[in-house]
Amino acid sequence: xxxxxxxSNANKVKDIKxxxxxxxxDLEVVSLKDIGFFGDIEENGTTFEENSEIKAIAVKQFCDxxxxxxxxxxTDDAGLCVDCLNGEPGVYSARYAGENAxxxxxxxxxxxxxxxxxxxxxxxxxxxxxxxxxxDDTKIVSKGECTGKIAKEIKKLGGLTYSPVFxxxxxxxxxxxxxxxxxxxxxxxxxxAFSQLLAQIKx
Length: 203
Prior knowledge:
With 203 residues, the chain is an alpha/beta fold. 35% of the residues lie in helices and 23% in strands. The chain has helices at residues 10-22, 32-35, 48-65, 103-117, 180-186, 189-202, and strands spanning 2-5, 28-31, 72-82, 123-134, 139-150, 166-168.
């Protein structure tokens, strides 16, 4: 089966191929770059589900218009949701401190807003929602979560925007401080979402 995955990010494609291989699925993964899709998609939804579907529809329309063969089109939307902030930053995770804000800007705003609530638990979760369309227009929505808590101070910068402050359940340090193997095991919301998707495809 040929899957068009809605990203041009080479690292993301590599990660997805590894997840698919780990599940033993026979799927050829093709990126947006591979099919010549370079357009900007306005993600104006208010939920991960809405944004994921907006992207999936845009890619599907492009493929149908240009007679691009596929068995399945899959797009995702993901972000961090903090309990005491009523789910913020949520769909605005990448631009929480403004359109051109740095990673440190977003982290400082997050920690400041949590402090203002007085919350002690500091619970949060990474969420990934996948929207997929099959050739017959069947839509499949799958979701994965990685739960944990927010640290009180910023650790090593780099990687995912919030990895320097997100401590996954079962660990004592933020994601950015984990070894590569530990990181793969802890940062698993996309893997969980794909597990659901692959199970539904097999049905």
